[in-house]
Amino acid sequence: MRYGLLLFPVLLCFGCGREGIDAADLAATTAWNEFVSRIEAQEALAEPLFRSVSALLPQEATAVEELRTALKQAAAIDLRQIDLTDREALGRADRAHRDIRRRMARLTQALKQDPQAFAAIEIATIVGQVESAEKEVVAARERYGEAAMLYNRALRTFPESITNNMFLRLTSKAMINGEQERIRRKGHTSDRNDR
Predict the structure, then answer these.
(1) Cα atoms in the 13 Å half-sphere on the side-chain side of 44
(2) 27-52: burial string, b at 16+ Cβ within 10 Å, e else
(3) In the predicted structure, residue 165 carries a pLDDT above the cut 60
(4) Which residues make Cβ contacts (< 8 Å) with residue 107, sequence separation at least 6?
């Protein structure tokens, strides 16, 4: 009987906060999957961009090849299988995909600067799609950053912190480079443990 009385608060404590941790984890995982989907959609526009630039701007052949190489290197990183608590792996993936986005932006800018090329409806459409996809990637990246920050905060606040420290031992989600500072500037309060 005495052990039952001691066990009751422990079991009650385990239930406290578990739902909050699970909900925050689901939100962060969902936001990450959306981010990955947006990256994949943007990178799917690379092939039409290759064809357009190659046909209209042969002087950009080197830039096209650099983008193809960057895409091949990034493909080696499976974003769907990445461990969201591994800051180094997340950083490598982020750098690879930022490089692709930067190179795609350079090629779209080259198309926009050529009046003859940009006058074609299909070229303007491709450029618009690439630029729209970039905005969607940035927005999805921000949503993941906010969801990861809320998950990390849930692991540190009562009663979730007790449940986590006693039973679960979960680690915080890694933030994408620069997201923590952007969230702070946006007005959310946080501390060093959100990284």
Answers:
(1) 9
(2) bbbebbebbbebbeebbebbeebbeb
(3) yes
(4) 49, 53, 60, 63, 64, 67
Q: How confident is the model at residue 31 (pLDDT cuts 50, 70, 90)?
A: very high
Q: pLDDT at position 142, please?
A: 93
What is the pLDDT of the chain when averaged over all its residues?
Answer: 82
Cβ atoms of 167 and 79 within 8 Å: the answer is no
**pTM of structure:** 0.78
User: How high is the pLDDT of residue 157?
Assistant: 84
Encoding tokens for residue 51? 């064809």
Cis geometry, peptide bond prior to residue 159 (ω within 30 degrees of 0): yes
Phi and psi at residue 176, in whole multiples of 5°? -70, 140
For range 23-43, the mean pLDDT = 93
The span from the CA of 156 to the CA of 164, in Å, is: 8
* Residue position matching structure tokens 């982020």: 94
Q: Which residues of 132-154 are buried (b: 16+ CB within 10 A; e: fewer)?
A: ebbebbeebbbbbbbbbbbbbbb
CA distances, 40 to each of 47, 133, 142 (Å)? 12, 10, 17
How far is residue 26's CA from residue 152's CA, in Å, rounded to a whole number? Answer: 12
Burial class (CB in 10 A: 0-12, 13-18, 19+), 120: middle
Q: Which of 8, 3, 18, 11 is nearest to 164 (CA)?
A: 18
- DSSP secondary structure code for residue 120 in this structure: S
